[in-house]
Amino acid sequence: MSFNTFGRLLRFTTWGESHGPALGAVVDGCPPGLAISEAVIQPFLDARRPGQSKFTTQRQEPDAVRILSGVFEGKTTGTPISLMIENVDQRSKDYSEVAKAYRPGHADYAYDAKYGFRDYRGGGRSSARETAARVAAGAVARLVIPEVAIIGYVAEIGGDAIDLANFDAAEIGNNPFFCPDAKAAARWEKIVDDARLAGSSVGAVVECVATGVPAGWGAPLYAKLDSELAAAMMSINAVKGVEIGDGFAAARLRGEDNADPMRPGEGGPEFLANHAGGIAGGISTGQPVKVRVAFKPTSSILTPVETIDRDGGATEIRTKGRHDPCVGIRGVPVVEAMMALVLADQKLLHRGQCG
Amino acid sequence: MSFNTFGRLLRFTTWGESHGPALGAVVDGCPPGLAISEAVIQPFLDARRPGQSKFTTQRQEPDAVRILSGVFEGKTTGTPISLMIENVDQRSKDYSEVAKAYRPGHADYAYDAKYGFRDYRGGGRSSARETAARVAAGAVARLVIPEVAIIGYVAEIGGDAIDLANFDAAEIGNNPFFCPDAKAAARWEKIVDDARLAGSSVGAVVECVATGVPAGWGAPLYAKLDSELAAAMMSINAVKGVEIGDGFAAARLRGEDNADPMRPGEGGPEFLANHAGGIAGGISTGQPVKVRVAFKPTSSILTPVETIDRDGGATEIRTKGRHDPCVGIRGVPVVEAMMALVLADQKLLHRGQCG
Amino acid sequence: MSFNTFGRLLRFTTWGESHGPALGAVVDGCPPGLAISEAVIQPFLDARRPGQSKFTTQRQEPDAVRILSGVFEGKTTGTPISLMIENVDQRSKDYSEVAKAYRPGHADYAYDAKYGFRDYRGGGRSSARETAARVAAGAVARLVIPEVAIIGYVAEIGGDAIDLANFDAAEIGNNPFFCPDAKAAARWEKIVDDARLAGSSVGAVVECVATGVPAGWGAPLYAKLDSELAAAMMSINAVKGVEIGDGFAAARLRGEDNADPMRPGEGGPEFLANHAGGIAGGISTGQPVKVRVAFKPTSSILTPVETIDRDGGATEIRTKGRHDPCVGIRGVPVVEAMMALVLADQKLLHRGQCG
Amino acid sequence: MSFNTFGRLLRFTTWGESHGPALGAVVDGCPPGLAISEAVIQPFLDARRPGQSKFTTQRQEPDAVRILSGVFEGKTTGTPISLMIENVDQRSKDYSEVAKAYRPGHADYAYDAKYGFRDYRGGGRSSARETAARVAAGAVARLVIPEVAIIGYVAEIGGDAIDLANFDAAEIGNNPFFCPDAKAAARWEKIVDDARLAGSSVGAVVECVATGVPAGWGAPLYAKLDSELAAAMMSINAVKGVEIGDGFAAARLRGEDNADPMRPGEGGPEFLANHAGGIAGGISTGQPVKVRVAFKPTSSILTPVETIDRDGGATEIRTKGRHDPCVGIRGVPVVEAMMALVLADQKLLHRGQCG
Q1: Domain membership of residue C72 as a residue range
Q2: DSSP element (H, E) containing B82
Q3: Which sites bind NADP(+) (chains A, B, C, D) (predicted)?
Q4: Rounded to 10 degrees, what is the CA torsion of B178, B183, B185, B187?
């Protein structure tokens, strides 16, 4: 089966392949009257755009978004918003190798097993280019939750983590890694460049924090805020793990160390810790909502890997072409977009049920 | 909002509170003609049942399941299967303290913030007792996927992990921890008992492996097999993290070390590794599907914790009563049930689209 | 496939068969804080209850509803409300004839064709007894829309229609036909009794009007208010047609005769007609929402009908047992319930998107 | 709320307004491997296309469809199929009158009441132009059900019905009314032309029959085949009534006259009548599936109608511009498309659950 729609009240549907004429998203259920234009959406796409440094793929895509519906006189009308991004730089290359053999770690074999054949050009539907459509949809979602500020950043590359003592949000935009720790960013230059030059790749951990989320958003039990975030993040290409708050580290704490004590505060409780990542019982607590996302190293590498061809015969493949040596870096705007989409949906769900 | 239904073709809806008269699940979309009876479901509930050792809550619940619909002459009819479990041991106790003050780490404050009030008896709807209904539904799901074998176990308690060299699946049923490593089980006795006696609690990591899943199950992009598993697992009480395959460890590998090379095998490719946990591009590859789930330490502890009362005033609370010192242990049958439910749903989805 | 859940934010799932131990509904997404008890729901079930006159089936069912979850201290909590009705009068009879041969007009053959076999006792899941669960769910839905008054009635039996000049809403409860026209009710006594005595049956048309619905409810395009009402009504057993406002009669009008002119009124426009039945573009206009529903004559008749048996051989069947000679009569509370459920859902949807 | 997605496994989402740059549909869940191209879809759009006779609107739209995704080497890939149709003939006219005052019978007032404002150009999202996207999606759905033949036609215009004795399917394409009765078509010329010249409009009844549907499709209880068809048809602009089989006429029959007796036939039962319209218990019986749909007269008429303006003041409006004098005529391809979409979805649902 294929399910290319996400969300419950604020829903978006994405479509498109890496090497098709275009890709896009239809955002449905958006409240009416929100000021919007291409200029509001474009900066988020620009942040995700490839080819901006040597640390990401060299494919040159303007990723210019066009609004085709759902907007009138500069405002959302409450009807579906169709967003389209044309593909420009589908370099004409020879895909015969990828067409014939399966790249380990890629979706090649799985797609063939499921559908009988696949659009192999640049990964087709399984390409990370699809995330451009999510980022565009996420920009719409942000308009629904003006009370919320979302900050994403890379917390770790190739096992080398940032030092929280150096955390400076203003730094995130100053380096090609969305890194809030200038010293780590300096180290990562070498790590990523080494991988790139070796035709290898490295993994990364992305963190995303949403502040301003009021207590009460979340739809227990099977659309819990954390459950929806987990689904959203795990649906991103190359993601293999999701943590809320302390995540796996919480499994190593004792109960008293994992508690988030409360005391009276202004306009609600003041929490003395946030091990829970701002979510209890699937509902926001008013604390910052925090998620951590693990990106595996890009599967496209120059080292030859043992594999099979479409006929089941033994062969070997090395993935030439333009690839991100660390796909997690450009994952930051995508993680932020998914956070925005989940929160906006939950806000509407909460308003629907609880008024 | 409240969403108590999970699944797309095979859907289940759970209902019930910790201290209400009963709880249950309605399983809809189950294929017809499957042999079923209460006796088929009960063993899974028995595995999750509390009060079986000193390492779990002492609440005594038979958790006897009753099938109220959807079955005729011992077979599923294709119509909704209603499963009910009566609550028996709702000990009459004084809940006035919990009614007045919020237990940090619990859903108390969040539920109040969302709904304006809450059923505070035993945690109400946010109680882990709800998972009994999932386990019953999961037993039905297993009938849908006879080709799949699911094994869950505790891999780590309080930071103390099993040694894979000692892994013995037959050992899992021999100790009260669902532990496949006899030596670790022996160590955990002390860890959990110490926590219990201290009125504290410890966290755990549960692993679950499904073998026999054919290549091709999964519904990209927003109902990817891994995305659905992440949502399913994160919806379980006390879960804070989910990993597929190597998870966060994959973020520390280089591309060539994370590859799962293939070579020709019988009836499909032979994989030389399984870093991916049996899923690529959101679709099963035919390898074992592997998920890891982090359970935080039980929030109910005897140590007093700073908190606020319903009026916003400062107070302190310690949670008396019957609780699991390590809620992850009884999480094993729940994780297995969610694995079964996701896989059964994906099997039907795949059959629906791809025939 | 089987889909036993209806609704988008306010959702209900029904389960149960005619001759099983019980049937029920789980209502999910209900706003919190609404005063509720069994006593609030029971009167609606009593109105639908069989055995109250010779014009309905003689099966004696108290249809006593029990609330199993979702309510605390007399108020809805926002969590799923489980409602159960035990079956009492499953008369032990010989179903061997129905088991072997297909009753034309019934779902017997279709269920076998779909599922391979069926629970043939009393129609199993396809029995009109399922509608008891809808009526219980509808009683909950009414609490969500206190601003709306819903009145249903039979407008036509066996082709004999009420005279609008005689319409008196107070009359509806005074006769066994939910008939607002005392003269028609008198005529219908003979029509229905004749059919009953002849072992035959007659059809009916039910009308339902909801006043107090504000302008703005409806979810274009594929969950339009009228589209949802059509789906809701057509899902009721024996229903073969649905009209909104003038329905098919509108297809015979010219544009100027079908217009509903507006002029300024207090608190909104005053409409000079209501051909549209209170819905334009799938959205309520503030006028009364009006739906008409056609019920076919009960398929269970004593006249022998040519049919086939399970092995495909020719045979003949006459349906003995207890049946409604005019199933449309008891359809009135069901149509009202579905109206309430759709409106309540649309109210929450509107609030979710538009605040 | 806004729900622009229809379907459960085979889902389509439409977007676009009458006077926006384009409109389209995303079809998700389509099985892989089906031969497709723009040329396969275009004929269905051509049948619906305006401006082909004086009996429909004179707006000139080529309605050329473009496939943007989901197709590779001429076959569906199983991923979402994005279809786009550019608007060409959005005549620049003065909409100030429509912007200020509400056209009775149109969605103008309802949209404003719901969303606070509206895209008034040509009806915006509520325009019948949206149905072009449905027709394109329906063409994809037809590929999923090659065993089914769908024939739609106009059965009645302005109260003048076809004579079944004259029914000739081959005639449907020979006149501008999709009329299977040549004599009726001749009469309708005058009826529709009179209405057109008078600036008035007439209603119509469309019938649609699907043959080749095997027994067993349908998803009881709340996605019954007839319930889904009712929702699908009632979601079409200007539709006010839906009948399955005999519909309201069945409510005037006695049970023995409404029965569809069965006798042994080749490859299944032979039915001696089809009052049920091919559906029993919400499941197809193998007989032709038959639906009747009532279209009201176009609300856009030249006769001035009393109305109010956006400020609530009294005014009067006559709708100039290009309109269909009988919107039901071009409803035929739309009704067929919705029939195809529902049947294709139900086929996949059935295969998913019942294998």
Answers
A1: 5-354
A2: strand B81-86
A3: 48, 54
A4: -160
Contact D239, D134 (CB under 8 A): no
- Domain with residue B108: its CATH number is 3.60.150.10
Q: For residue C58, how many other CB atoms are within 10 A of its CB?
A: 15
Q: What phi, psi does C115 have (nearest 5°)?
A: -105, -10
* Residue recorded with tokens 């509170």: B17
Interchain proximity D262–C307, CB inside 8 Å = yes
Number of structural domains found in chain D: 1
D265 neighbors C258 (Cβ within 8 angstroms): no
DSSP letters for D25-44: EEEESPPTT-B--HHHHHHH
DSSP tag of D74:
T
Find the residue in B nearest to D220 (Cα).
Answer: B79
DSSP C10: S
In chain A, helix, strand, coil percent, each to 5?
Answer: 35, 25, 40
- A158 touching B (Cβ < 8 Å): yes
DSSP label at residue D179: -
Query: Are B57 and B323 within 8 A, CB to CB?
Result: yes
Q: Which residue from A68, D245, A135 is spatially nearest to C105, judged by alpha carbons?
A: D245
Say yes or no: A52 contacts chain B, CB-CB below 8 A: no
DSSP A15-67: EE-TTSSEEEEEEESPPTT-B--HHHHHHHHHHH-SSSSTTS--------EEE
- Tell me which residue of A44, A297, A45 sits closest to A192, measured CA to CA: A297
Chain A interface includes B221 (CB < 8 A): yes
Q: Are D262 and D269 in contact (CB under 8 A)?
A: yes
The one-letter amino acid code at C146 reads P
CA dist., res. B287 & res. B267, Å (int): 12
Report CA Rg, chain A. 21
At C46-67, the pLDDT tens digits run: 998 877 788 877 778 899 999 9
Is it the case that residue C1 has pLDDT exceeding 60?
A: no
Residue of D nearest to A112 (CA): D77
Q: What is the DSSP string of D139-177?
A: HHHHHH-TT-EEEEEEEEETTEEPPGGG--GGGGGGSTT
Which positions ≥6 away from A311 have C-beta within 8 Å? none
Query: Chain A closest CA to D264's CA: distance in Å?
Result: 38
CA distance A69 to chain B (A): 23
What is the b/e burial string over C219-251, where b = at least 16 CB atoms within 10 angstroms of the residue's CB? bbbbbbbbbbbbbbbbbbbbbbbbbbbbbbbbb
Is C127 marked as a binding-site residue? yes
pLDDT tens-digit map of A183-202: 999 999 999 999 999 999 99
Is C299 assigned a ligand-binding role in the annotation?
yes
User: Which of D78, D220, D353 has the CB atom closest to B353's CB atom?
Assistant: D78
Q: What is the pTM of this model?
A: 0.97
What ipTM score was computed for the predicted complex, to two decimals?
A: 0.97
The answer for residues whose C-beta is within 8 angstroms of residue D140's C-beta and 6 or more apart is D12, D27, D30, D36, D41, D76, D81, D83
Annotation-wise, does C263 bind a ligand? no
Instruction: Tell whether B176 lies on the interface with D, counting CB pairs under 8 A.
Output: no
The pLDDT tens digits for D48-84 are 887 778 887 777 889 999 999 999 999 999 999 999 9
